[in-house]
Inverse folding.
């Protein structure tokens, strides 16, 4: 039986990865040892791998002491969409006319498209786990069986599969979905370890 992969770290160091394969955005497998470290301070010269620079710059990967966002439920006739802005990485995947309306309030209209499967397809593109859905009275939060980490060149690490996250800030308690989320690699996020889109600033 395959061991469950782990991501282990403290606020002062890199992501230590145990038993999880690493891929690029285009699906290329990156060969690694069983245990390896990935940069989270944004200053490594060996990205995505850690080269110890975090120690030289006195990196502290602690999230700001702001209120954790609450999940909002947008109830529709055939599907309800759950949204937690706090863990959103703002990658723009949630694009579907008449359903996701970034300039309107409320910004989600679950009845805006009669094609429920299409809505679900778009929700499943959300890498951060900010969007989940309820259908037939069942809240669906997980859809990745294969464990992998996807390294994006100009953005976060996208985590897929039931990989356990362990740190000194109890970050696992924030997650809505335990099988996909996005981790900051630029060191700028105010919601560390989760990406908040600050790499685009």
């Amino acid at each position: 039986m395959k061991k469950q992969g782990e991501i282990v770290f403290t606020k002062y160091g890199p992501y230590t990865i145990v038993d999880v394969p690493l891929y690029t955005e285009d699906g290329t497998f990156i060969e690694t040892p069983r245990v390896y470290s990935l940069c989270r301070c944004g200053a490594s010269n060996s990205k995505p791998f850690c080269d110890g620079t975090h120690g030289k710059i006195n990196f502290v990967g602690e999230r700001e002491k702001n209120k954790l966002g609450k999940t909002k439920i947008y109830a529709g006739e055939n599907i309800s969409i759950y949204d937690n802005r706090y863990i959103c990485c703002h990658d723009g995947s949630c694009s579907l006319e008449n359903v996701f309306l970034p300039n309107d309030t409320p910004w989600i209209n679950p009845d805006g498209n009669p094609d429920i499967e299409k809505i679900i397809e778009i929700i499943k593109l959300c890498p951060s786990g900010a969007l989940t859905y309820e259908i037939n009275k069942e809240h669906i939060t997980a859809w990745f069986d294969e464990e992998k980490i996807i390294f994006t060149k100009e953005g976060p690490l996208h985590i897929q599969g039931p990989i356990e996250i362990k740190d000194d800030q109890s970050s696992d308690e924030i997650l809505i979905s335990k099988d996909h989320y996005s981790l900051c690699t630029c060191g700028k996020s105010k919601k560390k370890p989760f990406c908040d889109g600050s790499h685009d600033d």
